[in-house]
Structure formats: structure tokens, C-alpha cells
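Open question from group meeting: does this chain pack into something compact, or does most of it stay loose? Before anyone orders reagents, we agreed to write out a predicted structure and look at it together. Recording both the input and the output here so the notebook holds the full record.
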Amino acid sequence: MTDLRFFDRAGPYSLDELAELSGARLGGGADGKQLMTDVAPLETAGPEDVTFLDNRKYLDAFAGSRAGAAFVDERFAERAPAGMALLLTKEPYKAFARAAQALYPAKPVIPGVAPSAIIGPAATVPADCEIGPYVVIEAGARLGARCQIGAHTVIGQAVELGDDCRVGPHVTLSHCLIGARVVLHPGVRIGQPGFGFAPDREGPVKIPQLGRVVIGDDVDIGANTTIDRGSGHDTVIGPGTMIDNLVQIGHNVELGRGCILAGQVGISGSTKLGDFVM
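C-alpha cells returned:
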């Protein structure tokens, strides 16, 4: 059961509405007006919950589930318990994700600037943005519409964020251009200098890192991940990429569209990945 002290739930949604937003279709005999109030796993779902089955190894749990409705492939429909409404789809997990997004939407932006925030000269902060306590937005930085910036975050000189970005607390951004609908979780570091130096007998000679980080639309970056700016070329993160917590991306790296990086991955400088690499 979801602990509603931590999450804001919307709804309820009718089966007709869930089918429409997920791309599923109702199985025969289902009442499209039946209301679902939550999402839950097969084992814990109750009569007002919607669940899903996308792997045959969970067929026994599916057959014994008390869920009011389930997203399921039609080939498994005959294993459904009596009284369970079926939302038929070839992609049950994705359909379930759409339902969960509808029932638990992102927290709305509450426009305003906290009194303790510091906004530098010539910075652009639209009136519909939410700027948290002790945020620093340096000179010339530019935020898009409806951005949400968490407490103690620093947005460096001339940094740009697109519309509808959500930046968690204690994030630092420098030397970067960020697209729309990007999510940065707490502690993300973007744009710090890469690990560049020339060897010398008296010790390494640091090479100024003169590139940027360019992040496409709809990217999600996990907590305490670090992305170095380029040394001369840019470091590029393609649109739709998802990066887990504690990932290190070196200078001049180029990631294509829709890549997925799991926690504690390290990408060495100047590495290039194509589209949809996992």
C-alpha cells in the first residue's frame, strides 16, 4: 500500500479512462465505468487497485490476485480470476506505468522565489517558476517556463534550462545547456572541468576544459551523478536518456538518443555511444 504521507494521489479513474490513457482495450464483460483508486503489485492489490502481468512466471500470482483490474496480454486472459476486469495490451508494463503516472502525477509547480534565493543580474527567471530556499542563479542564466528548482541549488553563469525542468536540491550546474522536461535528482553535478592534463616530470599540467555539456529534452539524471564538460568539444547527452544514481560521465562523451545507464556506471572521456544503448 502506498504511504500517502509521501505521495499525492489523483483520481480515481474509470476503466474507460485507464484504457484510453494507456492504449489498452477492455476485455469482454468489463464495466468501463468501474473506478480504480490505486496501482499495486499482483500480490497486494485489492478490489480498487489495478495491477499488471507481463511475465508468465507470475501466472500463479495473477490467478490468485484480488486486484480489481489488470493490464495483461490477451494470451494470458484465461488465467484471470473471476471478477477481475482485464485491460488487454501487448505492453502491460508500459500501460501500467501510464496508469501509475496518471494516479501519481509530479508535484505541481508553485510559482514564486524564496526570500533567501539569490538571483544574479541579467538572469531570466519566468514568473511561473518555483525557486526554492537558498538557490543561487548567477548572472545571465536563463530558465524556461514552469521550472522547479530545489533548495541550495546553484545555477551557474549563462546556464540555460528549457521549459518544465525539475531540479532537485543541492544540484550544481555550470557550462551547460539543458533541454526541456529534464529531471535532475538531488546532488547532480553538471559542467565541472574534465580530468584533462599534460604529463610532466614535475607533475601534471592541467589543461583548461573549454567545452560545454549539452543535454537534450526529456533526460532523467539520478542522484549524485556527475557529468564533466568537454575539453574542447562538448559533452552531449541525447534526448530521452535515463541515467541512474552515482554515474560518472567524462569529458567529450557523446550519448545518443534513449540510452540507459545503470548505477555506478563510468563512461570514460571521449567515448561515443549510439542510440538506445543500455
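Observations to bring back to the group:
The mean pLDDT is 97.
The longest helix spans residues 92-103.
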